[in-house]
Write a structure and sequence with these properties.
5 helices; 79% helix
Length: 104
Amino acid sequence: MAGGIAHLLGPTGGYLLAYPLAACLIAFLWRRSGRGFSAALLSAGAGNLAILACGALWLAALAHLPVRTAIDLTVLPFLPGDALKIAAAAAMAVSIERLRRQGR
């Protein structure tokens, strides 16, 4: 199994390289919000969109695919599951924030 730089430059490299960007984006949006469920949902959704967009664009460039084809193959099939993960992450963020404010 290949490791190291091969993973970063391979077909999934766009997703892997997008994670730090998504983490910064989510943190930026969350810190500037009212820290409610809708703000958490939008923050997590924006981060997920950044990951999916970078991954699809990377794969389109690497495999010489039209962007629409890359989106059809690498984004659309994952949207339902990602929506569930985003909702779960938003609920957890709001719950943790509520506990933090209570001093626990």
